[in-house]
Specification:
By secondary structure, this protein is α+β, with helices and mostly antiparallel strands. Helix content is 23%, strand content 25%. It has 4 domains: 92 residues, Helix Hairpins; 134 residues, Chaperone, DNAj Protein, Chain A, CATH 2.10.230.10; 73 residues, Urease metallochaperone UreE, N-terminal domain (HSP40/DNAj peptide-binding domain, Sandwich), CATH 2.60.260.20; 32 residues, no CATH class. It has a 4-stranded mixed beta sheet. Helix 2 runs antiparallel to helix 3. The radius of gyration is 35 Å and the shape is elongated. The chain starts with 5 loop residues before the first helix and ends with a helix.
Length: 374
């Protein structure tokens, strides 16, 4: 059975606001309401589908689940699809039909004295940093556009000295009731567009919208130990709310670039160390440099094999959640020279004979020894 696209059913985009989703459902529910389409099974099914879509998309938890998995959480809702009871739909979503006449049995629309404050939208940004910055932490400048309260009208949307007025045509209800034969129905007030209020003298700067576009820039602290794909939340740095509503938040998605010398494995910092064969055989002391530039001397034990891990405790990434930090892990590798001086070649051939390996004179390489070694 094909999965249902609730956004498509309601005719809204995937980033639609809660208000847009409610308005779309209201429109479909009134169109397919059983009292308007008596005995029409197709309208009844469309009515149920719209209710199913609205029940999911109007609930943040259910909407997040649907966006991630493409279906509904079977344990999260009161009903699904054709199994939804009509009484349940009316009981749960009766407010959708308010103001559409006594025929629907939901009472009358409340008067709207003015615009209701609404929370601003969240904003998202992508931020790319180096592996070294992830290890040490950093300060990064971010710049983006968002909506901010209009400074001229201070977010009121009206010209100075004026105010918002209740709509005279609908009495502030946003709907006008009409009677057609036996039925009483309502329609959106053409004067106020269903808002229940008007702004006779809008602010000249924001044109009555209460907000204007604003170019935001500030420095954000990237904590040491941050990992690729992490998300930082900056409170109240999203869009300003509408007509005095709270600000949304800014979410920064962090991307960490790969490094040529180091890589991250969990909270450990890993790097390869190229050594000569004599250093591996006889052992040695080698100075290395960590990703932050700190120098350390490590001991290579005698007879150290290639691929051996040398662990320097607590020199890896700090743990974001919890205390402590990972380790710096050095993996030994053997340097295989492509060119040798005549003296070095002669000495290596002699050593090869002593340990019983074959020398390929045609290619001028001592492949048998290194094949056995590796």
């Amino acid at each position: 059975m094909a999965k249902k696209d609730y956004y498509e059913i309601l005719g809204v985009s995937r980033d639609a606001s809660a208000a847009d989703i409610k308005a779309a459902y209201r429109k479909l529910a009134l169109k397919h309401h059983p009292d308007r389409n008596p005995g029409n099974k197709e309208s009844e099914e469309n009515f149920k589908k719209a209710a199913e879509a609205y029940e999911t998309l109007s609930n943040k938890k259910k909407r997040d689940h649907f966006d991630q998995f493409g279906d509904t959480d079977p344990g999260a809702g009161f009903g699904q699809g054709s199994n939804m009871n009509m009484d349940d739909i009316f009981n749960n979503f009766g407010d959708i039909f308010e103001g559409f006449g006594d025929i629907f049995g939901f009472g009358s629309q409340q008067k709207q004295e003015g615009p209701s404050p609404r929370e601003g939208h969240d904003r998202t940004l992508d931020l790319t940093i180096s592996l070294k910055e992830a290890y040490e932490g950093a300060k990064k400048d971010v710049r983006y556009y968002r909506l901010e309260n209009c400074t001229t009208c201070k977010g009121k949307g009206t010209k100075e000295g004026t105010s918002i007025e209740g709509c005279k045509k609908c009495g502030g209800r946003g709907q006008i009731q009409r009677q057609q034969g036996f039925f009483i129905y309502s329609q959106t007030c053409p004067e106020c567009g269903g808002q229940g209020y008007t702004i006779p003298h809008p602010c000249p700067t924001c044109k009555g919208n209460s907000r204007i576009q604003f170019y935001e820039k500030f420095s954000v602290k990237i904590p040491s130990g941050i990992y690729d794909g992490a998300e930082l939340r900056i409170a109240q740095k999203g869009d300003a709310g509408i007509y005095g509503g709270p600000h949304g938040n800014l979410y920064i998605h962090v991307h960490v670039l790969p490094d040529k010398r180091f890589r991250r494995e969990g909270d450990d910092l890993v790097s390869n160390l190229i050594l000569t064969y004599p250093q591996l055989v006889f052992g040695s002391q080698v100075e290395i440099e960590n990703i932050d530039g700190a120098k350390k001397t490590i001991k290579i034990p005698k007879g150290c094999p290639a691929g051996n891990k040398i662990i320097i405790a607590k020199n890896g990434f700090p743990q974001i959640r919890g205390r402590g930090r990972g380790n710096l892990i050095i993996i030994t590798q053997c340097h295989i020279p492509k060119k040798l001086s005549p003296e070095a070649q002669e000495a290596l051939k002699k050593y090869s004979e002593l340990i019983g390996t074959n020398v390929n004179d045609d290619e001028g390489t001592i492949s048998g020894f290194f094949k056995k070694f590796l």
